[in-house]
Amino acid sequence: MANMISDDLRGLLSERHVDSPVARVVRALSGHGAVSAAQIARTTGLARSTVSTILSDLKRSSLVVEVETRSPGVGRPAIAHSLNPEAGTCLGVLLGRNEARVVLADVAHNVIADVAIPLERDYRPEKATRVIKQTIDNIYKEHSLPFSGLLGVGFAVSGAIAANGRILRGASIPGWSGVDLRATFEPALQKPIFADKESNCAALAEMMWGAAVGVEDFVLFKHDVTIGGAIVANGRVLSGYAGTAGEVGHIMLNPHGDLCSCGNRGCLELECGGSQMISVAERRGGRSLTLPILVQEALAGDIGLRRLIEDAGDVAGRGLATVGTLFNPRMIVISGALAAADDILLAPMRASYGKYTLVKSGDVDGDLPTFVVGKFLDNDNCLGAVGLVLRHHGRLI
Amino acid sequence: MANMISDDLRGLLSERHVDSPVARVVRALSGHGAVSAAQIARTTGLARSTVSTILSDLKRSSLVVEVETRSPGVGRPAIAHSLNPEAGTCLGVLLGRNEARVVLADVAHNVIADVAIPLERDYRPEKATRVIKQTIDNIYKEHSLPFSGLLGVGFAVSGAIAANGRILRGASIPGWSGVDLRATFEPALQKPIFADKESNCAALAEMMWGAAVGVEDFVLFKHDVTIGGAIVANGRVLSGYAGTAGEVGHIMLNPHGDLCSCGNRGCLELECGGSQMISVAERRGGRSLTLPILVQEALAGDIGLRRLIEDAGDVAGRGLATVGTLFNPRMIVISGALAAADDILLAPMRASYGKYTLVKSGDVDGDLPTFVVGKFLDNDNCLGAVGLVLRHHGRLI
């Protein structure tokens, strides 16, 4: 039974060129999770009556189920619709700097498993394929789920993916530049492969489940050891022809600045990235540190580390001001290890953004853009990789 | 007869929330001009057979006509479909620094009239409404066209339009900041009003008829007395919440630079804008100059003016490099008076772009992005204002 409905679902999701009303409703459910009929009508542009008829048919064939959602406060619980959790599963895989991570979710957006795999710093594609396949097999066995129900595997990569599916020069996993992701993983997994750089996946996670639900235009700023970013316009994560759109860390602040790993000089990342901050803090303290510890000690009151984070926020705000001048987003979501510093980082960032960007406070109604901390600081990349499959974004073919 | 079909067309174009297949086909024709059935199927996502049936019906009701298009070379002329030119008209109006301009086109994308109206530098909304209405009346009378067939009026404005329809602080027409465009023009015109900043209109013109036809992701760089810009992502011109998206001229190159009219320091416009170039050239030559004359004399061999343009191209390329790092576009279209300098401007621009942007030559196949001169240096703003109506972009309500 479960297998039959996953076949139906696979057909509807992959029906890429025939834009039937049924396929549009199924894609809206896949992309948004539990939603009301009214929301589906808005998302798809279909008439409310058409949506109702389609939902009834889909419920009869067990592809869709009704769920109750209750808003805070009194009142009747609202009826929402979701894909049947038994209709299929999706995997999100993070290819990180020294770990892989696998998240399994069902098509109703429930996370079923989340497994981290530590790896040596220079792990190779062959090794990654082997351990990831083994981990996936174990997860499906442990949860007694049919592998046939797997709709696709999304990869969040520490590097940009060009339109031809290859990882671009400059990826932060050594030895992976130029690797063809589909050719690497499809033979072992035998499922559709989706991929995007990790900040784009993080933006997808925040848009689908996190701080940016319902926001069609926002920027994600990933402030960690390195600096990543993503730009979402009209509800879509921008990729660019080389897959590098949103790379806020590599806008140039100083043409005569230090040489960056990307081949340019004076990049934003060199002026306020976590790696530089750790160097300064280690020199000052005479001991080795990690970024989470640095943030924790600043929050506990270390005045020097506070200042280090404040100054980084000030410089980052200057870089984001340029992004603001070009994009004029409604929201800026801060993620990465430094986001845990909250207002120590965000207050100076907001102030310098306001000073250096084109649209000033008072030019428009309201205090825009809003700066918020992301909801999934721990696993946004991997959760977003699941989102790639649910939204059919970044399919490699 | 013509009136009846414009009523039908108005209904289909304004059917904004009911996304019927017929309305989608009509919108594709309105947005793209003469296109084949296969192109319509691709654009709308509808099945080819559905498109054929709908086109037959639309032809029977005279809303659509067949036109022959002939590609260069031998071969049979191809059959394309277009909205019936008699089905309706659109107006594009430029509100410029010291002129207004009115372009009349039919829904088959033919330009019928193009009238410039010189105005004093500080013309006011009341005056503009009066002379523009008078000009429109004259045009419709002269061409014996029914005013009832007018579907809407698009405005290209030398300033950003916020989401509430008001012109933002910083518009380059004095006294127009805060003006509500719809409230100003709708009572006199009694038609739907559309508006966007002039560089966004220019991008729309290049995308619909010019250098960027078929390119879904590009940047327009308007290099003139001031510097404007527009960003097109996934086939849509980005606006941003204050209407300022794409303002490349106001990204900050130097935090301690000169004060800019926008309220920031060291903006790109101050370092390579036409106004600054004219000042330098006038000081050097001891006579007054305009930007077109400056370009003309550089093309004729004036080595000093050549260098002035080359240096401006070099700085502009550095600013565009940042846009490239963030957007990774396939094409950069150069418009404005300086675009006429062609490779004197474009060669150093391309070189410095390549030096300062993230994606280097060799990172991806092909020499991307391509730098091209726009097709409508003379009237892209006003033509794009017609495009606002045809694409239902920037409707003020």
TrEMBL record, chains A, B:
HTH marR-type domain mapped to chain residues: 21-76
Gene3D superfamilies noted in UniProt: 3.30.420.40, Winged helix-like DNA-binding domain superfamily/Winged helix DNA-binding domain
Highest rank taxon of the organism: Bacteria
InterPro entries per the UniProt record, alphabetical: ATPase_NBD, HTH_MarR-typ, ROK, WH-like_DNA-bd_sf, WH_DNA-bd_sf
Pfam families linked: MarR_2 (PF12802), ROK (PF00480)
Family: Belongs to the ROK (NagC/XylR) family.
Protein name per UniProt: ROK family protein
